[in-house]
Design a protein that fits this description.
With about 450 residues, the protein is α+β, with helices and mostly antiparallel strands. It has helices spanning about 1-35, 50-55, 85-90, 200-210, 315-320, 435-445, and strands spanning about 60-65, 70, 75-85, 90-110, 115-130, 145-155, 160-165, 165-180, 185-190, 195, 215-225, 235-245, 250, 255-265, 265-270, 290-300, 305-315, 335, 340-345, 350-365, 370, 375-385, 395-400, 405, 450. The radius of gyration is 29 Å and the shape is elongated. It comes from Mycena metata.
Length: about 450
């Protein structure tokens, strides 16, 4: 009896620990980025009693399809297990599977007494296969399960998966069963797709991974600030150096340097023992590194077109471990602090103190590549902010950037491999702009009746 109680306590402890882990991971990711850890959609806390209950209730249909990030142009494979006794009992007549992609946008308009949601769905593609007919089942079989394989090639030149409550680019497998009762059985499994990188884009990614030796682009900004409401101004400037590229591949460490220079107001050299303003930050935690995304979308309703936009800001210091498993979370940022330099002016014993700090590190973008379509467009702006005491003294430097795909189409026959096994693309990102777990659970529902 004591052993039984101990086993029960151990099982409950493991269950609570797993639930806490899942909850903490989801809170951490959804709060900042609305991103998805793909394994959460299939994770279930199972106890022996739950397993036995599941075994007692066989499913009519079971879909076997690896839950991986897919690349446009890739060939995917899987199979569907059909329980034949349940199919006969249910009156199932045919079974088919459809691979589809859509762009869906919706806008809410409030009027005097009520509001209306307007929705536009733009199909990207649709591919269908027949899985099963009653006559196709062998008369003699030693099992109640009939396995129906399927194989699709995802079209090329597709936009990446994207999710927002008002704008979604989604891809899914949908199984439809026709029944003699005139109703249908439906099951949808959504999965993420990223655009395929071109040969040039893959070469760019490899150059970055091996250490960038190409040209650099500098973005500079400077301004005058003062410690109080009156008095002479000091001077601050910042220079961001990033690789000179037309795009930056997602989920890839991008090297950069950030140089901050401060100059005090004119003062006497004897005043140098006092606290000098402004003081440049020497810790990376004092800097703000964010990525802004503005998404413009539209909905056409008959002859009327509605337009709206979404403005989002992502904290990049919290996002660094989200692109793939090879990137450290919040990579160390090296700071080089120069010795203060006294620069005299024409007046005897008067001048300014110049100080500078240079940060070097890498930055990773685990977000959907830049996209422009008929009903949906999004673009990015990178921003660094250096804080200084005083009203409106913070120095902000920003530049528009384009994100591009960073993964090759896997070779044929690799549908069931993880991306760590597929070369030369490397591991696919664990997160993109994907729905939260609740969205996936809604899409990946059990077999429900649906009337024509």
């Amino acid at each position: 009896m004591a052993t039984s109680h101990a086993a029960t306590r151990d099982s409950e402890t493991r269950t609570r620990a797993t639930e806490q882990l899942v909850t903490s991971l989801w809170i951490q990711h959804s709060t900042a980025f609305n991103l998805l850890i793909l394994t959460l959609t299939s994770l279930r806390v199972r106890t022996p009693s739950m397993a036995s209950t599941s075994a007692q209730q066989p499913r009519l249909i079971t879909l076997h399809f690896p839950n991986l990030v897919r690349v446009a142009g890739e060939t995917i494979e899987g199979h569907v297990d059909l329980n034949l006794p349940l199919a006969r009992k249910d009156g199932l007549e045919t079974l088919q599977i459809e691979l589809r992609g859509v762009i869906e946008t919706q806008i809410y308009k409030r009027y005097t007494h009520a509001g209306t949601w307007y929705t536009e769905t733009l199909p990207l593609f649709s591919l269908k296969e027949s899985l099963w007919l009653p006559g196709a089942t062998p008369n003699e079989t030693n099992t109640d399960t009939f396995s129906c394989p399927f194989r699709f090639t995802i079209p090329d030149n597709l936009p990446p998966s994207f999710y927002h409550t008002c704008a979604t680019i989604g891809y899914s497998l949908e199984i439809v069963g026709e029944r003699s009762s005139g109703k249908k059985r439906r099951l949808r499994r959504s999965f993420p797709v990223t655009s395929a990188a071109s040969h040039r884009q893959l070469l760019t990614k490899e150059s970055l991974r091996q250490g960038w030796t190409g040209p650099w682009r500098e973005i500079k900004h400077d301004q005058k600030i003062r410690q109080g409401l009156w008095g002479d101004y000091s001077h601050v400037s910042a220079t961001l150096s990033i690789p000179e590229l037309p795009f930056f591949p997602i989920a890839t460490p991008i090297p950069y340097s950030f140089h901050i220079v401060t100059e005090t107001k004119t003062l006497g050299r004897s005043e140098s023992n006092n606290s000098l303003f402004p003081t440049p930050p020497t810790q990376s935690s004092k800097l703000t590194q964010v990525l802004h995304r503005i998404t413009d979308y539209r909905v056409r309703d008959c002859d009327t077109i509605f337009n709206d936009n979404i403005y989002e800001t992502f904290d990049l210091q919290k996002a660094q471990g989200l692109a793939d498993d090879t990137v450290e979370c919040t990579p160390a940022m090296e700071a080089v602090v120069d010795e203060p330099e006294w620069i005299p002016n024409d007046t005897k014993d008067r001048g300014i103190w110049r100080r500078s700090v240079r940060f070097t590190s890498t930055i990773t973008f685990p977000f959907a590549p830049t996209f422009s379509g008929k009903t949906l467009v999004w673009q990015y702006t990178l921003q660094f902010v250096v804080p200084f005491p005083g009203l409106k003294n913070d120095l902000s430097l920003e530049t528009p950037i384009k994100l591009g795909p960073g993964f090759a189409r896997p070779p044929p026959g690799s549908s069931n491999l993880t991306y760590a096994d597929v070369l030369p693309a490397g591991p696919a990102p664990n997160m993109l702009d994907l729905p939260p777990p609740a969205y996936w659970e809604k899409e990946e529902h059990d077999w429900d009746d649906e009337k024509h």
